[in-house]
Structure formats: structure tokens, C-alpha cells
Amino acid sequence: MAKSAYPAALRRVINSLSKWPGIGEKTSGRMALHLLRAPKSEVMELAQALLELQDQIRLCRRCFAFADQELCPLCADSARQPGQLLVVADPGDLLAIEKVGWHQGHYHVLGGLLSPVEGVGPDDLRIRELMERIKTEGVQEVILALNPSLEGEATTTYLGQALKHLGVKVSRIAYGLPMGGDIKYADQQTLKEALSHRVET
After folding, report:
1. Which of 10, 62, 142, 163 could tie 75 with a disulfide, CB 3.0–4.6 Å?
2. Residues 116, 113: Cα–Cα separation, whole Å
3. At what angle are helices 91-100 and 188-196 packed, to 10 degrees?
4. Is 138 left (phi over 0), alpha (psi -120 to 50) or beta?
5. What's the first-to-final CA gap in the chain, in angstroms?
């Protein structure tokens, strides 16, 4: 096996970066070389930001989105409209939907999707917290915005049945999204159409 042309320190950075989603060896190589040529202050700024990311980012105690305080910026915003709760699988989906600018209500992050194959059941998601919020926050409509995958469909069906007993309107986003797609990677227009043309479950 041929030895790598890269010095060990550079190779370690390339290997670390290539573990990130969507970044292959070529891209990680370009990124590592950019870091090598960048001013030391820029590299130190990035290193500090990464450390702070680990130390300071937590989950919002109310909706379970990313936060650096007890409440995330959206839950802390008094201008958000009460009564409408949009449910997503993870914080990345929330960020993608928020960029569209369509939803002015609140969010709830489940922390995943039902997946019997992977051993993820209802008790592994934040479904109990969702039910509690619906009872205590005056929620009138729950919008299910979950990925168009087998796990997403199973979770949507489960929640649709469970929420009907609470007397709230339950709708789901329409799907211009391809089956097996991922909400956080959809373009903004597709997401806007899916949200605008949601259907009752």
C-alpha cells in the first residue's frame, strides 16, 4: 500500500472533515488545504466556534430545537402566533421550514421518527411532551411536517390517531417532496407549496 503524500497532521484534518455528512475525500482535502493557507487567526476563530458549539448549544426546554439559553429564539419570541403547532422530526427540519417564512406559530421537535427496525418506538420520541403542550398551550391545529419516508409515514399515522382524541385539528403537509426525501434538503418553493396545501389527516 502506497504511503500518503500528505503529512500526518494534514491527513488527520482531511480524515476528520471527510466524516461530515456530504463531504467526501476530495472536498475535505480542499477544505484542509484552505485551512492550512488561511491566517492563523481565522483558524483559531473556527476552532473556538466549534468548541463553543459543543459547550453552549442545548435543546430548548419547550420545543426541543437548538438553543443557547433555556428557550430558543422562536419560543422566546412573543410575536409568534399561538394556536398552531408545527411538528418536525429534528431541528434541521425546523430550520429549513423557518427559512420559508410561512409558519408564524410554534414548533415541536420529536427527536426522530418511529422505526421498529432500529428499535425506535413512541416512548423514544417526545410524543408525551407534545401531548402535554397541546393540553396546556391552547393549541387548535397541529401540522405534521415529517419526511415522506416509511418512518415518516408511520409516525404521521401514529400521531394522527393519537391526536384525534385531544379534539384539535390535525393536518399534514402536502407532498411535492419525493418519497424517501428529506425536508431539510428540499428547496424553499417546494416546502412552501407543501405547507400551503396541507391536508387534514
Report:
1. 62
2. 10
3. 90
4. left
5. 58
**Sign of the torsion angle spanned by Cα atoms 82, 59, 126, 175:** positive
At residue 169's C-alpha, the angle toward residues 167 and 170, to 5°, is: 115
Collect all residues with Cβ–Cβ distance below 8 Å to 156 and sequence separation of at least 6. 144, 146, 172, 201
- What cell was used for 199? 391536508
Question: For 184-196, how does the pLDDT look when each residue is reduced to its tens digit (9 = 90+)?
Answer: 656 565 666 566 6
Burial class of residue 78 in the structure, from the number of CB atoms within 10 Å of its CB (0-12 exposed, 13-18 middle, 19+ buried):
exposed
Q: Is the dihedral of CA 83, 169, 196, 176 positive or negative?
A: positive
Domains and CATH numbers, the chain: 8-56 (1.10.8.420), 78-200 (3.40.1360.10)
Q: State how far the Cα of 40 lies from the Cα of 134, in Å rounded to an integer.
A: 50
Backbone angles phi, psi at 58, to 5 degrees: -135, -170
Residues 195 and 73: their CA atoms lie apart, in Å, by 22
Residues of the chain under the 70 pLDDT cut:
1-4, 175-201
**What angle is formed at CA 20 by the lines to CA 18 and CA 23, rounded to 5 degrees?**
55
C-alpha cell at 91: 431541528
CA dihedral 84, 100, 72, 143 (to 10 degrees): 30
